[in-house]
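Quick one: co-fold with iron/sulfur cluster.
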Amino acid sequence: MYDPLSPLPADFINDAEIMATLAYAAAKKSDRGLIDDLLAKAATAGGLTHREALVLLDCDLPDMNEKIFATAMAVKQQLYGKRIVMFAPLYLSNHCVNGCVYCPYHRQNSHIRRVKLSPDAIRREVVALQDMGHKRLLLETGEDPVNSPLEYVLESIATIYAIKHKNGAIRRVNVNIAATTVENYRRLHAAGIGTYALFQETYHRAAYAALHPTGPKSDYDYHATALDRAMDAGIDDVGGGVLYGLNLYRYDFVGQLLHAEHLEAAKGVGPHTLSVPRVRPADDIDAGAFPNAIDDDTFAKIVAVLRLAAPYTGIIISTREAAAARERVLRVGVSQISGGSRTSVGGYAEEEKSADNSAQFDVSDRRSLDEVVKWLMDLGYVPSFCTACYREGRTGDRFMTLVKSGQIANCCQPNALMTLAEYLQDYAAPATRELGEKLLAAELTKIPREATRRLAEENLLAIRHGKRDFRF
Ligand code: SF4
Ligand code: SF4
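Sure, here it is.
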């Protein structure tokens, strides 16, 4: 029976509830009165339930769809302004004991080059990332208790945090590793991770079983309760995700929201981030083998409605997406993007060769971080390298309280400008720096509180004189 408070995935990601939601949305998707009411509710950043969200997602009335996109853009502007948080993935190891059919790291793939970074290799990768300007990493590794046990991940995190190179520093290490025990999550928490992210990939049990035929990941329930265990272990910020295209997107969209509603109901705070990757080709993987792959229009609609349903939750996309698709979803909802990414193990220190088949997926957006930063600023966005909340202990419900109080703009905006200023001083190409300096001057005026604005101005001056790492 559907119960968001239940610890059992069969209850909180309840198939009957998803099917009833699909039927409800099919019946209501052209109900203009209802859609107007939902948009009025969403416009106040009050969020939407999974049923309400699917009505908007299914709506096929062109004029109402324009309203849906316009409301998503307005909510995004109200809560996030023009700020976009930047991060980079770092692949530690591609050894994996699982059999996920959509991923080239699957155990049966015998022609992929298996690599695991040594501490020295991690140092080289992190120095290369710091030299690009990154401050926030997402660690990724395949599941392999022999080749990459938790101890290896913990040691790698310690290595990363310890590397100080010129003005560089990795200030927040988010982690995306296999589902594990409460005890292991406690150890990850003690290592100082930011967000723990784990994607359910698909919420449909039969599809999940077919896509994960072997290995520990084949246990749907253990996987679907991993974020609960992480939160029980004290990790306040968790991130969920669907790999869109593995299954029918409506089902997974509702599942993604049910999962978020469960965490909010059962743990007091919903996911910190939601990721919306789409299936991509890679070694041994033919994206054409996934007939449920979604087009750009559907993708943009999913992002827009997620923004309305979960207004305070970060939405993340990666370089799987090409620049044009990224530009579109940035407008309607995405708040974090990766830039200059390498998706192979060791790909930052050594330029990836086309013959290298150790990548997890083909990158569509192959621009450098500086090109992405300049592109964002050309579009009017403010690239942010901020990691302040985590370092100030503003995680979980403390973070949500601040965000919902409407005061987050007094943190995010100055932090975005100060971290962008660091980037411009230390890493930017001349044209990027010139553009960025103009942007800083214009955006400084948008800090709501006067005292904060004055302090931010002083800090920007200090950054120009070589000081680093200010935060609100
Ligand atoms: Fe392993 Fe993750 Fe790839 Fe599955 S998706 S094969 S668990 S690396
Ligand atoms: Fe994120 Fe907090 Fe920085 Fe805002 S101030 S960008 S919420 S870390």
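If it helps, Residues 85, 384, 386-389, 408, 411-412, 415 surround iron/sulfur cluster (ligand 2) (CB under 6 Å).
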